[in-house]
Amino acid sequence: MTSKERLMTAFRRGKADHVPVCPDISVMVPAKLTGRPFYELFLDGRPHNGWTSATYSEAYVNAVKHFGMDGWYIYGGLKELRPEGAPEFTEEIVDTSEGKLVKRKCVTPLGAMTEEEMFFGDEPPWREEKPIKSLKEDFAKFKLWMGTGPWKWAAEFEDRHRIGDHGVYVGMIPVFQDWWFHYRHGGFEQCFTDYREEERFMDEVHEFWMEWALAYVRAMAAAKPDEIMLGGSSASLSISSPDVFRKYELPFLKQASRICRNAGIISHLHICGRSWELVQIVAEETDVDVMEPMEEPPGGNVDIAEAKRRVGDRLCIKGNINTFDFMMNATPEQVEEKCKRLIDDVAADGGFVLSTGDQCGRDTPQANLFKMVEVAKTYGKY
Q1: Which of 75, 86, 184, 344 could pair with 57 as two cysteines, CB 3.0-4.6 Å apart?
Q2: pLDDT tens-digit profile of 227-276?
Q3: Is 304 found in the same domain as 228?
Q4: Cα angle vertex 306, ends 258, 228, to 5°?
Q5: Is 314 found in the same domain as 263?
């Protein structure tokens, strides 16, 4: 089987030739492998030192080949076809001692919005200033930038050739809490203050987002990626709550997963951190096909063997080895033992992808990633 075939078989809860192995190496491991300043990949996109990658997404594909793993390409998307004359962000790039600071500004008929993002030499970029600062005033400007529909996108994914048969091509969309955190200045504390103290206004924001998000899901489904990822790091119960999830995420997940099911497209939900209660809600109340990373303690609270027993007939399970402690500090022999135990506990009747609990850190020993791949290909044979 090719990597694409292997993963798609597991996503449909079937048995592949061996357990697929897809550790989450984005975004730091591939960038480090290039030997280049991270900002060149995330911002400049220039080739260097024999690497063919001009962008981060190509660096990821090179890393997939380097480790011999099954790839999960989540870096593409459909180009939005914006109306002529729509407000746009302009950029100014400032060199700093840490890397490159990108200052952005969008002038709308209601006034300007600004944001700043820092691109580091050895870390992923970080948005230091976000455009929605004054809630109601800036959201009115933001809607002028977003548009109020009907939204239009290109008919095809321009970059789907990059991963080829080395993995699956994923169309990705953030869930509401991820989307709001991305644009709302003030961090998680401000976001949850909005949910609590501006509930009526946030209902309007959510309604607007739902209309846009479902339109984008339909456009992606029509373009036929291998699957559609519904991204939800900010919906994690490590920072959020089941009540917030039910209010803001569940209505979207129900509709989006049904759109995917009707179109014959796999739907794939990512919620890291503590997620056990959400795993059960998603399995019982939506048509989502795959859920990850079902993170183990201390980062999460999922017993993956119990998850297999409880929801394995409804969800493909992808996960769940801890990254910030175990993958960073374990020996290859310890990684081998843990991978074998996961395969024994979860993989027997298919529908399992051996992976990590979330993103592997920049300095994760390569030997540990190679060991994961080796175990899946040998011990994980069906």
Answers
A1: 75
A2: 999 988 899 999 999 999 999 999 999 999 999 999 999 999 999 999 99
A3: yes
A4: 25
A5: yes
Q: Which of 168, 275, 256 is nearest to 212 (CA)?
A: 256
CA distance 248 to 276: 18
CA geometry: angle at 141 spanning 140 and 142, to 5°?
A: 90
Q: Are 182 and 130 in contact (CB under 8 A)?
A: yes
Lowest mean pLDDT among 14-28, 44-58, 297-311, 340-354: 44-58
Q: Give every strand in the sheet of 111-120, ordered side by side.
A: 89-95, 99-108, 111-120, 126-129
- Closest CA relative to residue 230, chosen from 282, 280, 305: 282
Among residues 79, 76, 125, which one has the least CA distance to residue 102?
125
Q: Which residues contact 199 (CB under 8 A, 6 or more apart)?
A: none
Q: Closest Cα to residue 174, out of 212, 144, 145, 141? A: 212
Residues 216 and 347 in one domain: yes
- Dist CA 319 CA 117 (whole Å): 31
Query: Are 152 and 76 in the same domain?
Result: yes
d(CA 332, CA 350): 25
Number of domains within the chain: 2
Q: Are residues 76 and 93 in the same domain?
A: no
**89 and 76 together in one domain:** no
pLDDT at 48: 46
Q: What domain range includes position 111?
A: 84-131
Alpha-carbon distance 23 to 339, whole Å?
A: 11
Q: Which of 309, 300, 207 is nearest to 255 (CA)?
A: 207
Q: What is the DSSP letter of 255?
A: H
Q: Which two tokens stand for residue 196?
A: 């609590």
At residue 45 the predicted structure's pLDDT band, cuts being 50, 70 and 90, is low
Separation CA 154–CA 178 (nearest Å): 24
The pTM of the full predicted model, rounded to 2 decimals, is: 0.94
Place of tokens 């987002």: 209
pLDDT value, residue 114? 98
Torsion of CA 282, 7, 155, 264, to 10 degrees: -60
